[in-house]
Amino acid sequence: MTQQEFMLDLPPSPVPKHEALDPGAAVLRGHAGMQAADMLAGIRRIARLSPFRRMTTAGGGTMSVAMTCCGAAGWCSDARGHRYEPHDPLTGQPWPALPPAWRAWATDAARLAGHDGFVPDTCLINGYRPGARMGLHQDDDERTDAPVVSVSFGLPAMFQWGGLQRTDPVRRIPLLHGDVVVWGGPSRLVFHGITALRAGQHPVTGPCRYNLTFRRVWQGSSV
Ligand SMILES: O=C(O)CCC(=O)C(=O)O
Fold this sequence. Notes:
Blueprint: H1 3-8, E1 18-22, E2 25-28, H2 36-49, E3 66-71, E4 74-78, E5 81-85, H3 100-112, E6 122-128, E7 134-137, E8 148-154, E9 157-161, E10 171-175, E11 180-183, E12 192-194, E13 209-215
The chain binds 2-oxoglutaric acid.
2-oxoglutaric acid binds at residues 124, 126, 134, 139, 150, 152, 159, 192, 194, 211, 213.
């Protein structure tokens, strides 16, 4: 409570809707709440065509997060390393289409965070079960410097937000159902991650968390 609120006996200020993280990076609290039903139904449709899978890494490990994708390219990792592929290696088919309404929504979310003109060509979809985590990393496989728009649904997660060096101090930011994080400009290559998901039951997603990240992978892709 601020001194003024104390003096006037006002209720505490509500949680700010727009939390700046760093230049070019912000959390938009609850901004995707109204999109939850549509996006979760879309995830189910996409997963019927390109199922969730836990990818392997060049080091021989298996990622704890399950992934699928839609759009012009999907992120893939295997013994050869990681990269974007225009076809799903599991099905041999192109990735399912990125729904046009999602693209328009992501353009608007990026604009609210200060990034005009973002037109994603891809959406990576992460599925977390309790214990799944994503270690600190930079998103540097995209061939553009467009921002990333990241949406959380389901169980709460702890987002780690560091700096441009792996060894920079890391802030921990709780992310709830409907929260959106956008990072671009000078923050585009900030190291970030998710700590191990704690077990729980969410009224909409049960024991799971879903994360969608909208990205522009290829400069010239037709969307
Ligand atoms: O699950 C999240 O909120 C973050 C996902 C992430 O870091 C990524 O896809 O690069």
